[in-house]
C-alpha cells in the first residue's frame, strides 16, 4: 500500500482567497483557542501548526526596544521635512530592518505600532515628539507615506502591518487615563478624525490603537466611532489593538464599568480585537472573556469577528505562505543606504528660523560649540539603540577640523558637602560601556538599574559632579567618567547610567532648601538621599528606625556660564546648542508646564551672546520653545535627529546643505497665547495656525533658506469636482536649494467661524540657481467643505474662496479668489427635529459627555458643582409660521435649564429638582414659553445651571 500525504487544509492553500482561508481556519479553532488569540501574545496552536503571534512592535522612527537599529529623526522631525517621498523611503527602510531583525530574533513583531497621527494641537503635550504636525492635511500626508513604506509595495503580502496611534483626540499626559476630551462635532470631523481618515483611506493601514483618554465622557476603548467612522472608511479588516493596560483601566481607574467581564465585553463589541494587558500573561484577559461569555455578554460570533480581523493581518503578512512571502528573506539592516537615508532625513528636518546673514559659517571661522546638547545625541522612549552616533560637536570636528572648534558644555561643576564636612565620592570602578536596553526588551519599562557597581560613598575630597538643571528644578548629576547618578532597586546611588531614561527615570533629583543647606530628593522614588555606613542611598522611611536625610551644601567649582563665556570670547562665531532631554520634563506620562527655555540654558545663551554677538542658537528639541529672538543673528531648530544628527547640523551650518525644513506646528511667543491643555475646542479656543489670531514667534510652515525664491504665474481653473491650481517657483539665489511651496485656502465670507487659512497642498522641490519649476495641484472640492452641525453632514458653502500660495502660512506670495457653487445654508427645522444638545454653534462653560455608555452625546456644565453654569447657542433656528408654545428637554442629574431667544430674557425654565438615579436616566421635562407664539428664525440660547445633563430639546405648538 502506498501512503498518501494528508490533504492540505484550505487555510494552507495559497490559491484560495484570504477570506475563504480565514473561514476555514476559524472553523478549525476551538472556542478556547480563539479566546486565547484575543490577548496581545496569542499562543501557538500546535495541532494545526499555527505559530504564536504578538501584536505591537514599536517602530515610530526606527525599530525600537529590540536592540541596535538605524535611528531616524523623531516623528516631529520627519513632519518638519514636509517630504512624503522621503518619509516613505524611511518607512521602507524601517520595515526592512524589522524583517531582518525578526529573522534572528523572533521576539521582533511584524505588527508595528506606528505611526502616531495625533495632531500636535498643544505644544505642551508631553508626547509632542511622536506626532507629525498640528495640521491634519500635513499629518495625513506624512503618515500615509510612512505606512506605505512600512507596508511595502507587493500587491498581496505586506512587509509589516502598521497600526495608527492613538485614536482619538489625545493630547494630554496629565490624567491621561481619566480625563475626557470634549470634542464638538465640527472639531471631531474637521480636525481630529481627518488625519486618521485620509491615512486609512489610502489603504496601507492594518489597524488602529485607541488612546487611554475618554472622548465626550466615553473611554476610547469602547467608542462607537470605531464602527461609525473607522470601519466605514475601508473594506479591509482593520485590527484594533488596545493600548497597554487600557482594558483594565475601564474598571480600575476610569470606573466606567463595575466588572472586568462587562468592560472586556463592551470593548470587544465596540471593536477592540486585541487586548494588551498584563504583559505576556494572557490568562487574565482570557478569563474575563470566558466570564463574559458565561454571563451572556458575548457570543462566540463576537469572538470570531475579532479573531477574523487578527487572522486577516497574519495572512497578509505571509505567515501561512512562507514559500510565497516575498519579504521572508529580507536581510537589509544597517546598510550604507540606510545610513545615508538617516543623514538625508536629519538634514531635511533642520529648520532655519532666523538668519541675519551669519549663516552659513564663514569658510575660515573659528567656532565655539557650547551648550548642554553640544556633545549629545539624545534618544527618546521609542528609539532603538544607536549603532552609529553623531553629536553636533563631533559633526563640526569632522567638517571644520578640531583645530577650528572649541567646546564648552556649560554644566555647573559642583561638589556635594555633607553636614559632617565630607563630600560625596564616586568610587573607582570598571563601568564598561553598557547601554540601557542594548539587548532589546519586549517591555523596556521592566529593565532594572545596575547593581554591579559600588555605591557612592563620602570622603575628604569628594568627586566633582556635572550638574544640569533641565527646568522646573529637575537636575541630573554626572560623574567624571560620563555616567549619571542613578538609583537601582536596592536604593543605593551609583554612577551607573549611560543616559537618563526608563519608564520611571531614576537619574533625576531636586535640591530642596533646608535650613542652611539643601536636601537632595531623588525624583524617581520621591525619597531624600541619606548617607549610611555602607554607602549613599535613598532614605527608607518604612523602617522602625528611619534613616535621616542628609543635608548637603553644593560647593560650586565652576559655573557653566563662565566656561561658555570664555570659549565664546575666543571664537569668531558661537554655536549654542540648547534643547531638551527627551526623558525629562515633557515625555510620555508627563506634560510640560511652560514654553520657556530652562533657566540654566537661558543663562548659557545670555553668557555666549554677551561675550560674542555673532551667536547662533541651534535648538535640538522635541517641541517648540518661546525665547527672545532680539539680538540673535541666527536660529535653527531640529528635532532629535537620530544617529546622523550632528553630521547633518554641521553640514547645514557650513553651507554644504541649504536648510529647507519647515515648522510643522506654530511656535507661540508666550505661555499666555496657549489655551488650557484640556481645551480641545480648536475652533472656539482659536487654536493652531488654523484659528490663532495673535502673532506667533514663528508661524506654521515657516523656514528659511540660503537661497531665495520667486513665485509667479498663478493660474486657477475650476471643474466639476476640483480646483486646479498652477504657479511657478524660481530659485533666484546663487546656491542649489530646496523650497517647500505651500497652498492654502480660506473662505472669504463664511457663515460660521472657518480657519484663517488652511493647508490644502504642498510640495518640496529642489532647484538649481536660476531654475524654474511649474507646480500643479488638484484640490478636491471637498477640501472646501465644512461640517454643518445644523444638517449633521459636510457642506460646501457657495461663495468666494481665497487661494494663497507661498513659503509659509504667513509668507504668502500669490493670491487669487475663486467663486464656488455649493449648497446654500438653511435654518434648523427645530419644530420638526428639535435640537441635539451637542450640535451647538457656540458654547461657554460646557463640556460634551456620553448620553449612554454605548452611543450618543449630551452636554453638561464643565464645572461639576452645584452652582456651575454653562451656555449653548444654536444659530438660525426656524420655528415656522405656526409658531411654538412649549419646550421640552431630555434631562438627567439635577438643576435648571433656561430657554431664551436672541440673547433676550428667559422665556422658559425647566427644573429637574429630584436628582435622577443615574446620569444616564434621562427624563422629559417641559414648560410653556412665556411669549405669544414664537415664530420665524431666531438664535436659541440655552443656559444650564447645576450638575445637569441635556441630551435633546424639542418644541411644540
Brief overview:
With 957 residues, the chain is an alpha+beta fold. It has 18 helices and 47 strands.
What does this structure look like?
With 957 residues, this protein is an alpha+beta fold. The chain is built from 18 helices and 47 strands. Strands 13, 16, 17, 20, 21, 22, 23 and 24 form an 8-stranded antiparallel sheet that branches. It has a 6-stranded mixed sheet with strand order 1-2-3-4-6-9. Strands 10-27-26-25-11-12 form a 6-stranded mixed sheet, with helices on both faces. Strand 43 (895-901) and strand 44 (906-912) form a beta hairpin. Helix 4 (84-104) runs antiparallel to helix 12 (336-348) and helix 14 (560-569) packs parallel to helix 15. The chain is globular, with a radius of gyration of 30 Å. The mean pLDDT is 96.
Mean model confidence by pLDDT: 96
Our estimate of the beta-strand percent is 25-35%
- Number of DSSP helices? 18
Number of strand elements = 47
Structural class determined from secondary elements: alpha+beta
**C-alpha end-to-end distance:** 90 Å
Indicate the low-confidence ranges by residue numbers: none
Describe the oligomeric state of these chains in a short phrase: single chain
Biggest beta sheet summary:
8 strands, antiparallel
The backbone outline, from C-alpha atoms, is globular
Rg (CA only)? 30 Å
Percent helix among the residues? 10-25%
Amino acid at each position: 500500500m502506498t501512503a498518501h500525504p494528508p490533504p492540505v487544509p484550505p487555510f494552507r492553500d495559497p490559491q484560495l482567497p484570504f477570506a475563504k482561508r480565514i473561514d476555514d481556519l476559524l472553523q478549525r479553532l476551538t472556542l478556547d483557542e480563539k479566546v486565547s488569540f484575543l490577548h496581545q501574545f496569542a499562543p501557538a496552536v500546535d495541532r494545526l501548526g499555527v505559530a504564536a503571534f504578538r501584536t505591537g512592535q514599536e517602530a515610530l522612527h526606527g525599530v525600537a526596544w529590540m536592540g541596535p537599529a538605524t535611528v531616524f529623526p523623531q516623528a516631529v522631525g520627519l513632519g518638519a521635512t514636509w517630504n512624503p517621498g522621503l518619509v516613505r523611503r524611511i518607512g521602507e527602510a524601517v520595515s526592512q530592518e524589522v524583517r531582518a531583525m525578526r529573522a534572528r530574533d523572533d521576539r521582533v513583531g511584524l505588527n508595528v505600532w506606528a505611526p502616531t497621527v495625533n495632531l500636535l494641537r498643544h505644544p505642551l503635550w508631553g508626547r509632542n515628539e511622536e506626532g507629525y504636525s498640528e495640521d491634519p492635511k500635513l499629518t495625513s500626508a506624512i503618515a500615509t507615506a510612512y505606512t506605505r513604506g512600512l507596508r511595502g509595495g507587493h500587491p498581496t503580502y505586506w512587509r509589516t502591518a502598521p497600526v495608527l496611534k492613538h485614536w482619538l483626540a489625545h493630547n494630554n499626559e496629565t490624567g491621561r487615563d481619566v480625563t475626557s476630551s470634549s470634542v464638538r462635532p465640527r472639531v471631531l470631523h474637521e480636525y481630529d478624525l481627518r488625519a486618521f481618515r485620509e491615512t486609512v483611506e489610502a489603504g496601507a493601514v492594518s489597524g488602529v490603537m485607541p488612546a487611554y483618554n475618554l472622548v465626550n465622557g466615553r473611554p476610547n476603548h469602547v467608542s462607537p466611532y470605531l464602527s461609525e467612522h473607522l470601519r466605514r472608511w475601508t473594506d479591509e479588516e482593520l485590527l484594533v489593538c488596545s493600548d497597554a493596560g487600557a482594558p483594565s483601566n475601564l474598571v480600575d481607574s476610569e470606573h466606567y464599568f463595575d466588572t472586568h467581564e462587562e468592560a472586556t465585553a463592551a470593548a470587544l463589541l465596540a471593536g477592540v480585537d486585541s487586548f494588551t494587558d498584563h504583559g505576556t500573561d494572557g490568562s487574565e484577559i482570557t478569563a474575563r472573556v470566558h466570564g463574559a461569555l458565561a454571563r451572556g455578554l458575548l457570543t462566540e460570533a463576537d469572538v470570531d469577528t475579532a479573531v477574523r480581523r487578527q487572522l486577516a493581518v497574519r495572512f497578509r503578512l505571509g505567515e501561512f505562505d512562507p514559500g510565497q512571502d516575498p519579504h521572508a528573506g529580507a536581510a537589509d539592516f544597517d546598510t550604507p543606504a540606510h545610513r545615508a537615508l538617516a543623514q538625508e532625513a536629519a538634514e531635511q528636518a533642520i529648520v532655519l528660523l532666523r538668519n541675519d546673514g551669519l549663516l552659513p559659517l564663514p569658510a575660515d571661522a573659528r567656532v565655539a560649540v557650547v551648550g548642554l546638547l553640544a556633545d549629545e545625541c539624545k534618544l527618546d522612549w521609542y528609539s532603538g539603540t544607536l549603532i552609529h552616533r553623531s553629536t553636533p560637536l563631533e559633526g563640526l570636528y569632522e567638517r571644520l577640523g578640531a583645530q577650528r572648534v572649541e567646546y564648552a558644555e556649560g554644566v555647573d561643576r559642583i561638589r556635594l558637602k555633607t553636614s559632617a564636612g565630607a563630600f560625596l565620592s564616586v568610587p573607582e570602578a570598571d563601568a564598561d560601556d553598557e547601554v540601557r536596553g542594548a539587548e532589546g526588551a519586549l517591555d523596556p519599562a521592566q529593565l532594572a538599574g545596575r547593581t554591579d557597581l559600588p555605591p557612592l560613598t563620602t570622603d575628604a575630597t569628594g568627586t566633582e559632579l556635572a550638574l544640569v538643571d533641565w527646568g522646573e528644578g529637575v537636575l541630573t548629576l554626572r560623574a567624571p567618567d560620563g555616567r549619571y547618578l542613578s538609583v537601582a532597586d536596592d536604593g543605593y546611588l551609583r554612577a551607573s547610567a549611560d543616559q537618563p531614561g526608563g519608564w520611571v527615570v531614576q537619574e533625576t533629583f531636586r535640591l530642596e532648601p533646608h535650613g542652611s543647606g539643601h536636601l537632595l530628593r531623588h525624583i524617581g522614588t520621591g525619597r531624600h538621599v541619606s548617607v549610611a555606613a555602607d554607602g549613599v542611598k535613598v532614605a527608607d522611611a518604612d523602617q522602625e528606625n528611619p534613616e535621616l536625610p542628609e543635608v548637603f551644601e553644593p560647593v560650586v567649582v565652576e559655573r557653566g556660564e563662565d566656561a561658555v563665556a570664555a570659549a565664546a570670547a575666543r571664537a569668531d562665531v558661537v554655536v549654542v546648542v540648547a534643547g531638551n532631554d527627551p526623558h525629562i520634563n515633557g515625555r510620555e506620562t508627563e506634560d510640560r508646564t511652560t514654553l520657556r527655555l530652562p533657566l540654566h540654558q537661558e543663562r548659557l545663551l545670555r553668557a555666549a551672546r554677551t561675550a560674542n554677538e555673532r551667536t547662533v542658537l541651534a535648538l535640538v528639541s522635541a517641541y517648540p520653545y518661546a525665547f527672545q529672538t532680539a539680538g540673535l543673528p541666527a536660529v535653527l531648530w531640529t528635532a532629535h535627529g537620530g544617529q546622523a544628527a550632528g553630521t547633518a547640523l554641521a553640514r547645514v551650518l557650513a553651507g554644504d546643505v541649504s536648510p529647507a525644513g519647515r515648522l510643522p506646528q506654530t511656535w507661540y511667543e508666550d505661555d499666555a497665547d496657549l489655551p488650557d491643555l484640556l481645551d480641545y475646542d480648536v475652533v472656539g479656543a482659536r487654536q493652531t495656525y488654523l484659528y490663532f489670531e495673535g502673532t506667533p514667534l514663528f508661524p506654521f510652515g515657516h523656514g528659511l533658506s540660503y537661497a531665495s525664491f520667486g513665485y509667479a504665474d498663478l493660474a486657477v481653473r475650476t471643474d466639476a469636482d476640483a480646483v486646479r491650481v498652477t504657479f511657478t517657483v524660481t530659485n533666484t539665489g546663487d546656491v542649489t536649494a530646496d523650497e517647500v511651496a505651500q497652498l492654502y485656502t480660506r473662505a472669504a465670507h463664511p457663515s460660521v467661524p472657518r480657519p484663517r487659512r488652511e493647508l490644502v497642498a504642498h510640495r518640496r522641490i529642489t532647484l538649481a540657481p536660476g531654475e524654474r519649476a511649474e507646480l500643479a495641484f488638484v484640490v478636491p472640492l471637498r477640501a472646501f467643505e465644512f461640517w454643518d452641525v445644523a444638517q449633521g453632514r459636510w457642506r460646501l458653502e457657495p461663495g468666494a474662496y481665497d487661494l494663497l500660495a507661498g513659503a509659509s502660512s504667513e509668507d504668502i506670495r500669490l493670491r487669487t479668489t475663486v467663486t464656488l457653487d455649493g449648497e446654500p445654508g438653511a435654518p434648523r427645522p427645530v419644530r420638526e427635529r428639535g435640537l441635539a444638545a451637542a450640535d451647538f454653534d457656540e458654547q461657554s462653560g460646557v463640556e460634551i459627555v456620553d448620553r449612554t455608555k454605548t452611543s450618543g452625546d449630551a452636554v453638561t456644565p464643565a464645572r461639576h458643582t452645584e452652582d456651575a453654569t454653562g451656555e449653548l447657542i444654536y444659530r438660525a433656528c426656524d420655528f415656522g409660521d405656526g409658531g411654538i408654545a412649549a419646550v421640552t428637554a431630555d434631562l438627567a442629574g439635577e438643576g435648571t435649564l433656561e430657554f431664551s431667544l436672541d440673547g433676550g430674557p428667559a422665556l422658559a425654565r425647566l427644573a429637574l429638582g429630584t436628582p435622577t438615579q443615574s446620569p444616564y436616566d434621562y427624563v422629559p421635562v417641559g414648560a410653556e414659553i412665556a411669549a405669544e407664539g414664537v415664530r420665524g428664525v431666531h438664535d436659541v440660547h440655552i443656559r444650564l445651571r447645576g450638575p445637569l445633563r441635556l441630551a435633546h430639546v424639542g418644541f411644540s405648538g
